[in-house]
Amino acid sequence: MALTAAGLTGVSLMPLIAARRAEAADTPAPTGTAAPAVELFQVPLPLIPVARPVSTDGGTDTYEITTRTITKEILPGLPTELLTYDGQFPGATIRARSNRPVVIVQHNGLDVPISRHLHGASVPPDSDGGPMDTIAPGDTRVYRYPNRQPHASLWYHDHAHHTESENVYRGLHGSYLLTDRTEAALPLPKGRYDVLIALRDADFDATGRLVYAMSDRNRNTLLVNGAPYPYFEVAARKYRLRFANTSNMRFFELRLADGGDLIQIGSDGGLLPGPATVKSLYLSSGERADVVIDFSRYPVGSRIVLQNTAGRGPAEQVGQVMRFDVTRTADDPSRVPAKLRTLPPLPEPTAGRTVVLRMDEDGRADPQAYIDDRVYDPGRVDAVIRHGASEVWTVTNTNTKAAHNFHMHLVQFRVLERGGAAPGPAESGLKDTVVLQPGETVRLQATFDTYAGQFVYHCHMLDHSAMGMMATMKIG
């Protein structure tokens, strides 16, 4: 089968925007891999199942989950071996409520160590799933999530150092949607009209096997909720789409092929203060964003392609992501209020520090990646922070070719400046991951008033963190 957009009258493939420079200057892919061609928009969008707790006793939702290997057809007619949580790819979505604890009893049924990290969550250090705090094959670990934070579209993934990149790539990732009274009271699209869209890329060989190599440039097959280039049948009404970039390395810039509006309502740490009408949505690895699309502006029978205009790769493979097919009408009581939430004012900063991200980009055979010119050492504390402090961090990417991003465990932060200017609407809310293009500087403010202990901060291009771009902060 040829990779084609046949039958889409008036829709053209947009060229990728080279100016973004996302993911530049990484290690070339191994030669000899030959992913089979995939026809666009031939499979329906899978809806990721919601996990069910094994117990709700005492006001705590308890889940029992086992990582295990499965074989599943992702590309037509070909088996692919995956690492999964309970056999689901991606992992089942956990729905939680603020101030209602969740307990995860995590069994490791794999033959490699794992560490379960809840990305974007404020949790005690013994439940953070840090890179060295691993579960050996055959062992079990209990994670306790107090959920003492506002609503947010979080996600979970493996974090075992040196293997986190490959483990996540092979399937160890899923979503964790935390809600609260503020979010629930809004008249946003709900139920079947509130849909998770988990994006990632992959490199397959001719047999359907997932090919893994550090910084592989051939990860050019796009998956949405685990399926290649799906279509999604929608009603002519508003939908809330929760986009999550679960790729190791790839950045996305998403836009509708007809140039239609996207109404962004949320980012990593939940709803924005108010909605922002945008033409595109830019997500680096690990970032999330919620948007509302009103499909009532399209006649029934319309087909609207979601395009990608960032990152490397052939436009015919990575330039289109999925298709929305408007198949019916439906009542729509939902609306997007002009005000979504009120964020508390930032406290007066108590300290400031600088962080420099850099990786080898001179073509050497075994490149490393650094924070402040040091590779990750789990025995070293890189930043000592007073509990209760509110610090301004100035983070700079000194590479001239390679993009990075920056993620902090434990805290959601506020972006103060990007390149000396005020952040745009997409960064007006709470964030836990920010992109840094080559030569770019971002200033952010984080308040460390929840849990004491040691946590890491790192580039969330997971291949880069596995290469050493990670450091430890000690709060106390």
List keywords for this structure.
single chain; Immunoglobulin-like; seven-stranded mixed sheet; five-stranded mixed sheet; 4% helix; 476 residues; 40% strand; mainly beta; globular
Topology:
Layout: E1 61-73, E2 79-85, E3 91-97, E4 102-108, E5 116-119, E6 140-145, E7 152-158, H1 164-169, E8 173-179, H2 181-184, E9 194-202, E10 221-224, E11 227-228, E12 231-236, E13 238-245, E14 252-256, E15 262-267, E16 270-278, E17 281-283, E18 288-294, E19 303-308, H3 315-318, E20 320-329, E21 351-359, E22 369-371, E23 383-385, E24 390-397, E25 404-408, E26 414-418, E27 433-436, E28 441-447, E29 453-458, H4 462-466, E30 470-475
Parallel strand pairs: 1-4, 3-8, 9-13, 12-20, 21-24, 23-30
Antiparallel strand pairs: 1-2, 4-6, 5-7, 7-8, 9-10, 10-11, 13-18, 14-17, 14-19, 15-16, 15-18, 19-20, 21-22, 24-28, 25-27, 25-29, 26-28, 29-30
Q: Overview of this structure, please?
A:
The protein has 476 residues and is mainly β. Among the domains are: 186-329, Cupredoxins -  blue copper proteins (Immunoglobulin-like, Sandwich); 351-475, Immunoglobulin-like, CATH 2.60.40.420. The protein contains four helices and 30 strands. The protein has helices spanning 164-169, 181-184, 315-318, 462-466, and strands at 61-73, 79-85, 91-97, 102-108, 116-119, 140-145, 152-158, 173-179, 194-202, 221-224, 227-228, 231-236, 238-245, 252-256, 262-267, 270-278, 281-283, 288-294, 303-308, 320-329, 351-359, 369-371, 383-385, 390-397, 404-408, 414-418, 433-436, 441-447, 453-458, 470-475. The chain has a seven-stranded mixed sheet with strand order 11-10-9-13-18-15-16, with no helix packed on it. Strands 12-20-19-14-17 form a five-stranded mixed sheet. The radius of gyration is 21 Å and the shape is globular. The model is unreliable at 1-27 (pLDDT under 50).
